Please model this.
Amino acid sequence: MTANGNPPPYPTHPTHAISRRDLLRSGGLLAATMAAGGLLTACSGSTDTAAKTTAKKGGVLRVAATGGSAKDSLDPHNPLTYPDQARVLSLYEPLFFHDAKYRLKPLLAQSIEPSKDGMTWTLRLRDGVEFHNGKTLGADDVIASLRRIMNPKSPAAGATSLAVIDAARLKKLDARTVRITLKHPYALLQDLLAQYSLGIVPADFDITKPVGTGPFAYKSFDPGNQSTFTRFAGYWQRPAYVDQLDIIDFADDTAKVNALLSGQVDALDNLPQSQIKVIEAQGGKVLVSETGAWTPITMRVDTGPFRDARVRQAFRLIVDRPQMVSQVLNGQGRIGNDLYAPFDPAYNDALPQRAQDLAQAKSLLKAAGHDGLTVELATSSGIGSGAVEAAQLFAEQAKGAGVTVKVRTADSSTFYGDQYLSWPFAEDYWFTRNYLPQVNQGSVKAAPYNETHWNDPEFVSLIDQASRQFDAGKRDELLKAAQKIEYESGGYIVWGFKNQVDAYAAGVSGFTPDRNLPLSNYQFRNVSVSG
Model:
């Protein structure tokens, strides 16, 4: 997954600031153990999850977020790394969202309804929602936000998925109502508008003074190090429990876990699965969520040996999926079948489950003229826990098919730098999405994060037909046909879906399992700290 400014750095808070560099230099507490369609209304749009009777108000919540770099951003529409995503979900909110069970619900929207021909949608906003600067959310802000995302001179991460919207014909009907005109009928507009990178900002938004409707307001930002936010008392739902939120970048898992165990942070995302028992033995809490998150191995279909579909098929047969889940995820996950979006009602579970078949892999490689193949696999710890281990294990498995895989481990800033989306053979991470929104992000030529450069004409046609189909049954059949094509000739190896494993200190409460992003979808509003 991916994306993309930089407000001035802030003075370090004398009490709560953390030196990640010191932690990295000192090794730390775990150096030994770390080696290894229709009307949708807002009747149930609340994101409250914490137990209100036990939550303590006040204090500072310090969160260790995996990765980050000097390219960190506060841009609501271009989050790339985990720290970026944590900031975006604290500052801004989209019109719709997926709840903890990945059910679509309204957030800033009150309702949305399509016309009979599916060409126009009428969006009604919630009443009384305020931005951090006191301005009331209105139709002008929605129009300006959508146009900012779709700006042809500087398109944001979600621009491709919103390409169906005719930006020039967005129309304010009244202070809280917007008419959205489409270029062609699209049946799942709400799902598109529910992506976390589509936050609504004021019409006069200034990235150097970021303002949103989220539960926390901007205080300071030091790219690659730390960002600080304060509780927004005027939040339209129940305000956050904590007074302040600190999000700290951690590129190193050892330092991140050490920080939690030594009391320097209160929570961390992406706990290495091998450290679950260590955290629990020392009094910490582990949060496990079954998700649709996946760390694919990506094969660029337009370059080198991966141009040949037989090579791609062979590589999918090299993978020992149960072993990957067992060893890389320590059992915290389930095997995949080279398809994503497992919670989508249209998920094609009728396709045969792939299993390792080294003899067939060798045969395919020989037929393609690539027996004895040597390739480089690019990875990074910044992708998330288990990514480097998955690459190394795949390299071992590949030996059985006569393939030599040289694992190249880059730091996060290099991996997600200028060469990102150009690696011929690499890994990446994606969070839970339904099928159509995910395709719009990564599986068609115009998608912003098409790591595999795949653009099959028949697949594109089926996706286009499905997006226009308002009959759910017919739409599902089209999507299943599209998935079959991607299963057979796409550029992804989806070997499994990982459980999201995070951790927090004993004095912290309010985190609950969630199928979206780490740490309860980074909903820090629901979290309280004691002490």
In short: The chain has 15 helices and 23 strands. Residues 207 and 377 are 36 Å apart (CA to CA). The mean pLDDT is 90. The radius of gyration is 23 Å.
